[in-house]
Amino acid sequence: MTSDDAPALRPDTLAVHAGVTRTPFDEMAEPIFLTQGYIYPTAAEAEAAFAGEIERYQYSRYGNPTVTMFEDRLAAIEGAEDCFATATGMAAVFVSMAAILEQGSRLVAARALFGSSITVFNEYFAKWGIRVDYVDAHDNADWDRALAEPADAVYLESPTNPMQDVVDIAHVAALSRAAGALLIVDNVFATPLGQRPLELGADAVVYSATKHIDGQGRVLGGAVLGSAEYVDKVRTMVRTMGATMAPFNAWVLGKSLETLGVRVKAQASSALTLAEWLDAHPKVAVARHPFLPSHPQHELAVRQMTLGGTLVTIDIALPEGVDPHGPEAKAAAFRFLDALRIVGISNNLGDAKSIATHPATTTHRKLGAEGRAAVGMCDATVRLSIGLEDVEDLRDDLERALAAV
């Protein structure tokens, strides 16, 4: 790609060129190695490979050239020492902590998390004897209190899903180090182009590659990035449990990284334009986007992020006296969603197609009413993932839908 003395390349260039190893055919597009195993020239080489005496591909659950291409490319963009790809984003979330936690470990986690992450912590980690303590994501004093005692791991999203609270990653990273804990950041909302958790002091980053990295609704995937020592622990566990990425998915995701910059930057621009419009709309009680001046952590977001993200979260305005956690609030949100014509109703995000989600009845249903209220979510809350459509067409679609409320 470059000589050793060439200047460091920027993320958009790395997204196109990093991780490329051509075969003797000198193909333009990276090849797909659809194979489950590999041939050894001698029995002695097979023995040496399994003994760890030589490095080579043995079995595609352990490693595959196409998957390696995706891992190397994403690691280069992120600025991480190493990366390991998983079958799904939740596999990445689970193994990022399971690889380092054991019975008696203490995990400190932000209270505002994706619903499936909460399920893993409350229904599995707790059952296995792992103590989980929750913190208000945006409250530095709460992090100070929780990390005044030793911990083994700290896990957070920033911005949070779906309410878009922004966590002071550098502050939490310093506290985590002092407490003896590894800080793991889910960077899905921000993307590797919009926020650099490792540079802010985090030890590891996780992604659902299904979201912005694919960005076109095609395949599932996840990734864990960090130091070589940490990722090796993840790799060892995933190779055994089997939640590795398929070569075809890795090829799709690797090629998708080439357009990540142009897609995410265009989506983020449209998202901010729509957020500013929605923030002033009479039928919207609250619009949340990290780069809106009205966002409670706006100053931190601008300092910590280079892009505000592709999502806008709104609360539909309700008549005076209507309970925002009651059936009338849900009915108002459903009327809005059902009136959309361009924006689709789905639980995904980060896609080229704009998507609307009602978190209370889908992605965050298992949190329960009390859990959702604790993070500021109500039944009138709608999460909008802004795609690549013309921003004026999206504005017209949202206006029509708001008129139906």
Write the layout of secondary structure elements.
Elements: H1 11-17, H2 43-50, H3 65-78, E1 82-86, H4 89-98, E2 106-110, H5 115-125, E3 131-135, H6 140-146, E4 153-157, H7 169-179, E5 182-186, H8 191-194, E6 204-208, E7 222-226, H9 228-241, H10 247-257, H11 260-279, E8 284-288, H12 298-304, E9 311-316, H13 327-339, E10 344-345, E11 355-357, H14 368-374, E12 381-385, H15 391-403
Parallel strand pairs: 2-3, 2-4, 4-5, 5-6, 10-11
Antiparallel strand pairs: 1-7, 6-7, 8-9, 9-12, 11-12
Helix pairs in contact: 1-3, 3-10, 4-5, 13-15
Helix- and strand-based class?
alpha/beta
CATH class of the largest domain: Alpha Beta
CATH level-four homologous superfamily name of the largest domain: Type I PLP-dependent aspartate aminotransferase-like (Major domain)
Tell me about the biggest sheet? 7 strands, mixed
> Helix count?
15
Question: Mean pLDDT, nearest integer?
Answer: 96
CATH architecture of the largest domain: 3-Layer(aba) Sandwich
How many distinct folded domains? 2
Which features does this protein show?
2 domains; Aspartate Aminotransferase, domain 1; Aspartate Aminotransferase, domain 2; alpha/beta; 405 residues; five-stranded mixed beta sheet; 15 helices
Walk me through what this model shows:
This protein is an alpha/beta fold and 405 residues long. It is 39% helix and 14% strand. It folds into 2 domains: 11-257, Aspartate Aminotransferase, domain 2; 260-403, Aspartate Aminotransferase, domain 1 (Alpha-Beta Complex). The protein is globular and about 80 Å long. The longest helix has 20 residues, at 260-279.
